[in-house]
Amino acid sequence: MAAPALGWGGMTTRTISTAGDEPDREMHGTRNSKAGGPRKSTRKAQAREEDIYRAAAQIFHRKGYAATSLQDIADEVGLLKGSLYYYIDSKEDLLYGITRTIHAQASANADATRVLGGTASDRLRFLVESHVATFGKNLQLIRVFYTDYNALSAERRGLVMAERRAYEQLSRELIEEGQATGEFCLDLDARVMNNAILTMVNTVYMWYSEGQEIGVDEIARTYGSFTINGLRCPPEHDHSASPARAKRNGRGSGTR
Predict the structure, then answer these.
(1) What gap in Å lies between CA 216 and CA 135, rounded to an integer?
(2) 233 FRET partner, CA 20 to 30 A, in 104, 129, 176, 189?
(3) Are 237 and 111 in the same domain?
(4) Please, which residues have CB within 8 angstroms of residue 108's CB and are 6 or more apart in sequence?
(5) Pick from 228, 220, 24: nearest CA to 133
(6) pTM surpassing 0.90?
(7) Looking at the structure, do residues 137 and 55 belong to the same domain, yes or no?
(8) Are 64 and 37 part of one and the same domain?
(9) CA-to-CA distance for 81 and 44, rounded, in angstroms?
(10) What's the domain range around 73?
(11) DSSP state, residue 151
(12) What is the pLDDT of residue 118?
């Protein structure tokens, strides 16, 4: 999911700090006019745009994307329906903006992971913990993304998937690096483990809710430890006696 940090609508100008510990989000305030070229952005327009996208996320989550109308969103933010077209061309623009926001946050986590020092274990732990914490602090946006992603056009889905593949490649490379340095068990299939880890962290939104006794930061640390410990070799493990490793090396099962 690594990509340039983009705002709600995919354009880049200024950064707005979101509530709590959420990552900063880049906003553009107004979309391009159909007459050509970007409209002049103002603080008022930028603040209103954020209101519109947050309202869209809330209503998509509550009613579902298909059942939500632009009139619903206009009513929520106190605008005439026609005024929404100052910011968007269609309802899908709102869903795509939400999607790009999630991916921008993932991109920021990935970029921070790449420049982090330390071992492969350190960087993979950081990536997992950052991922879980981001999800836990943006539950509404995440749920909309996973529920309504297929409503995007084929072209936009393709862009999203390209970003996701880059993110998946980073986590797999960290696993493979850890295997090469002896931090992680060589008998584990890096592709399988990568899929398992990403499935685990991507489904936090399905069970976690704000206000639980255990906070999201503690959950993130638990996931990080679980990931690293699960990739390490058991005590006294003998790689040469592993049927799985022998099979991948082209030898018969059980051959030492």
Answers:
(1) 9
(2) 129
(3) yes
(4) 5, 23
(5) 220
(6) no
(7) no
(8) yes
(9) 18
(10) 14-92
(11) G
(12) 94
